[in-house]
Amino acid sequence: MLEKIFTTKNDWAGFITRVTLGIVMFPHGAQKMIGMYGGYGFNATMDFFTQTMQLPWIIAFLIIIIEFFGAISLLIGFASRFWAISFIGLFIGIIFTTHLEHGFFMNWFGNQQGEGYEYALLVIGLAAAILVNGSGKFSIDSKINEKIKK
C-alpha cells in the first residue's frame, strides 16, 4: 500500500504539476486555516461552512484540511497521490454544490450570479495527472520510495 502512495517517476512533469497545484491551492487553504490573504481563519470559515452553507462539520473540516495541508504536502512532494485524490473528491463536490448551476465559465465580467466550474476542472485535471504520475523530481515521496525498495 505504501509503495502505491509514494511511487513516483521522478520526472519533471510530476514536479511541475504538483508544485503548480500546490502554489494555486495554498492561498485558498491559508485563507481558511490561518486567515492569510484576506481570509477569515479556521473558526470563521467553519462557521460559514456549517451555518451558512449548511455543510456537516466533518465536511467543512476536511475542506480546510485538504486545501491547507494538501497544498503544503504537494509543494514538498509528500504523499502527493493521497492529496491528489483528496483534491479530486473535494473539487467534484465543489462543482456539484456550488458551481454547476452557473455553467462552465468563470464570472470574468461579473455578469453571472456565481462562478462556473472551469477552474474546478483544471484543479481536477492537475490532480489526476499527479495521481497517475506521482510527485516527480525533488519530492519527499521519491526519498521514501527509495527506502521502501531497499
Protein model, in words:
There is one protein chain. This protein is mainly α and 150 residues long. 71% of the residues lie in helices and 0% in strands. The protein is built from seven helices and no strands. Helix 2 (12-34) crosses helix 3, helix 2 (12-34) packs across helix 6 (118-133) and helix 4 (57-76) crosses helix 5 (80-99). The protein is globular.
Total helical elements = 7
Radius of gyration, in Å, reads 16 Å
What kind of sheet is the major sheet?
A: none
Strand content: under 5%
Q: Between the first and last Cα atoms, what is the distance in angstroms?
A: 16 Å
Quote the average pLDDT: 94
Order of helices and strands: HHHHHHH
Structural class computed from helices and strand pairing:
mainly alpha
Record keyword descriptors for this entry.
150 residues; mainly alpha
Topology diagram in text:
Layout: H1 2-6, H2 12-34, H3 41-52, H4 57-76, H5 80-99, H6 118-133, H7 140-149
Helix pairs in contact: 2-3, 2-4, 2-6, 3-4, 4-5, 5-6
In short:
Helices cover about 70% and strands about 0% of the residues. The chain is built from seven helices and no strands. The two termini are about 15 Å apart.
